[in-house]
Sequence to fold (364 residues):
Amino acid sequence: MDRSFAARSPAGRRGTRRAAAPGAPAARSGLLTGGIPQALSGVLRAIGSRRRLRIASVCLAVGLPVLGGGWLWLRHSSFVAVEHIRVTGVHGPEAHAIQTALRDAAKGMSTLDAKPAALKSAVSRFPAVSEVRAIPSFPHSMRIEVTQLPAVAALLVGGTRTAVAGDGTVLGPSLLSSTLPSVADDVAPGTGAHLSNTLVLQALAVLGAAPAVLDRLAEKAYFGPRGLTVAMRNGLLVYFGDATRPHAKWLSLASVLADKSSAGAKYVDVRLPGRPAAGFAPGTGPSHTEEAATGETQRVRSESTIAALAAGLARANPETSKKSEGGEEAAEAAEPTAPSASSEGEESETATSESSGTTTKPGG
Fold:
């Protein structure tokens, strides 16, 4: 009786449970390790029990590699080879060489496998090319759109001249023209390099923002006593001060030049584009009698000319005109401020070009 009582005692039962406890983790581990194979075998059994599903699986297993190989073969076959190539957006003396390089690179492509990186690499030796976009047209045509950096100035270092873009990219002497204004510097970097002189970069930014109707009139840009100065080919000096709000300042200059009362001015100060000022030599300048006589006719002509110049400025800089400063420029164009006239003698001071370290006459 004692033995049977001991076997049924709580301690005995607890001992039995404790002995069974170590086996529980093993059972759970077995479920975790054996669950995935069991599920996979279940799927295979289901496929094997259904004839249609089995046939579809076999077709899929065989067809995928065949379709993949067929696609790869078609992408590089003569059925989609590029045969008709059209290059747009190129201009200037390097246009023919750029077109030839792009056509040669595109001939090895297909309309299903265009390679923009290869096209870009083909024209990497032309720093004026900033972007290349390939637009294939099935089955044998491809249009290649090229974006070029325009030359805005001629960089002058000693006796050497080379064309530069508005962002400071050196384009090389082959893109020089007689209408480019000059900007002086102390260092002549190689073609394709970027300028690091901050003063020169400011001058290039201002020249690059000039509308086509005015950029051909600029002769050179330099830093003088009144900051960034652009000397026009007729001797007029335009004081920009710095490179901030260049489009507004060019538009302000256009409004002054469109006003007949500015005829004979020695300089135009557009450092505050909303309040341009024109300077005249002693004894010259507009008379109040003439201004009253021309009155309304002169105002209408001036506003018409300003509107035309503003439209040209917007077309020359479509993206910039959408920015925040565009609203201010439009307001200034709609209500132009008459230039204030000041009778000053021609400034005899010699302007020192901070960007080149040389001394030049401002009107020279």
Summary: The chain has a mean pLDDT of 75. Residues 198-360 form one domain. The chain has eleven helices and 15 strands. The two ends are 130 Å apart (CA to CA).
